[in-house]
Amino acid sequence: MRRRPGIGGLQTAAAARDQYRALGENVAKLRTDLMKEQLATFRSQLEEFARKHKNDIRKNPTFRAQFHEMCAKVGVDPLASHKGFWAELLGIGDFYYELGLQIIDICMSTRPQNGGLINLQELCTMLRQKRKSDREAISEDDCLRAISKLKTLGSGFEVISVGKRKLVRSVPTELNKDHNAILELAQAQGFVTVDEVERRLSWTSGRAIDALDTLLDEGLAMIDDGHSDGRRCYWFPCESSLSSSVAIDV
């Protein structure tokens, strides 16, 4: 018959478990300390890199995007504050602050035409035209970073993906899957019809009309009843050029 372990054996096993646990905690602490030391070294090297390539970071949008990627890998956010080391070294906080204000200005001025939803590429084009006297070039990555900081204003600024395109929303309008599906469908020619929505998305007439009416009410779509075939078209300014010469009845 197998003998059960005595009190001494149980105490020995418990002591061994305590030793293994303490050893594991020490190893984990050593790893954590080593990682902290490595991150501190990386941050120091990053600061030196930023000093050396200050002009390239400010003037070259591709280089600037790569710099942001390096910052993210070591847990540094150069845009976290307008003051401090990064702002003083690069003026990068002021750059995105100014860019954000210009984005707000464009979104506000175009809202009567697009209902507060504008194609990201179109926004970037308008920004470049607005900043043509500035020496620093801007990219879509710059626009996205500036917009991400505008979220803190709580004013509804957000980038949404519809199909292969990105749209900038400047009003707190909630778009559901049906609305996104119609917007994606409209990317081909800038407008849709009720029949097209029913056929392409396999929807009922009621579902198509309900979603389109909501987009109309929010100012994201416009009605065109001027087609020769008598069809009513729903135009989406965010998917078609604002400079289009098509006559539209609101």
**What is the structural class?**
mainly alpha
**Percentage beta strand:** 5-15%
Low-confidence runs (pLDDT<50, min 5 residues)?
Answer: 242-250
The number of helical segments is 10
First-residue to last-residue Cα separation = 94 Å
How do the helices and strands line up, and which of them pair or pack?
Elements: H1 7-52, H2 54-59, H3 61-73, H4 85-90, H5 92-114, E1 117-119, H6 120-130, H7 140-150, E2 158-162, E3 165-169, H8 177-185, E4 191-192, H9 194-201, H10 205-217, E5 222-224, E6 233-235
Antiparallel strand pairs: 1-3, 2-3, 4-6, 5-6
Helix pairs in contact: 5-6, 5-7, 9-10
Overall description:
The chain is mainly alpha-helical and 250 residues long. Helices cover 58% and strands 8% of the residues. The chain contains ten helices and six strands. The chain has helices spanning 7-52, 54-59, 61-73, 85-90, 92-114, 120-130, 140-150, 177-185, 194-201, 205-217, and strands spanning 117-119, 158-162, 165-169, 191-192, 222-224, 233-235. The strands form two sheets. The protein has a three-stranded antiparallel beta sheet with strand order 1-3-2, with helices on both faces. A hairpin with an 8-residue loop joins strand 5 (222-224) and strand 6 (233-235). The termini are far apart.
